[in-house]
Amino acid sequence: MEQNKILINKAKEVSKNAYAPYSKFKVGAAAEFESGNIYTGCNVENASYGLTVCAERNAISSAIASGEKTKLKKLAIFSPNQKKCVPCGACRQWLAEFACSSAEIILEGENEEIIVMTLEEIFPNAFSIN
Ligand code: THU
Asked: Across the chain, what does the average pLDDT equal?
């Protein structure tokens, strides 16, 4: 199976674990690094709404906690609630922190069509400290 489809399937699977009792909007993310390692995450909400953590950030945190040292290459996102579910602004900044320059965002559109965008396309001129 094509790698992008494999990642979407992993994002789909982990979206089932989302803890989203408030918004009822479930999200799953699968992050592939240059090492080949793949980490997943889902959104985790809180009664204090602003403390909610998005799926993308949980996937990246899992990578860092696991000791991942290479750059993020591909990030697939899936929501059963919305086709072509793109990362929020805060997550784009998080992705920019760990991504390689050609990092791809993989989404699912209508009829399970795979959509590939680059992070640079959706988040140009990211803030960073060199
Ligand atoms: N959410 C994500 O997990 N990722 C995003 O990029 C956008 C939003 C979650 C947060 C919240 O639990 C729910 O979707 C509705 O905003």
From this structure: 98
Structure token digits, residue 20: 């989203």
By most ligand atoms within 8 Å of CB, the mutation choice from 22, 25, 46, 85 for ligand 1 is: 25
Q: What is the DSSP string of 67-94?
A: T--S-EEEEEEEBTTBTT-PPPHHHHHH
**Atom number of ligand 1 nearest to Cα 55:** 3
Structural contact between residues 71 and 100, judged by C-beta atoms closer than 8 angstroms: yes
Residue 119: predicted pLDDT: 98
Q: How does pLDDT run across 60-80, given as a tens digit for each residue?
A: 999 999 999 999 999 999 999
The finding on whether 29 has its CB within 6 A of some atom of ligand 1 is: no
- Report the C-alpha gap between 98 and 74 in whole angstroms: 11
Catalytic residues: 56
DSSP state, residue 79: B
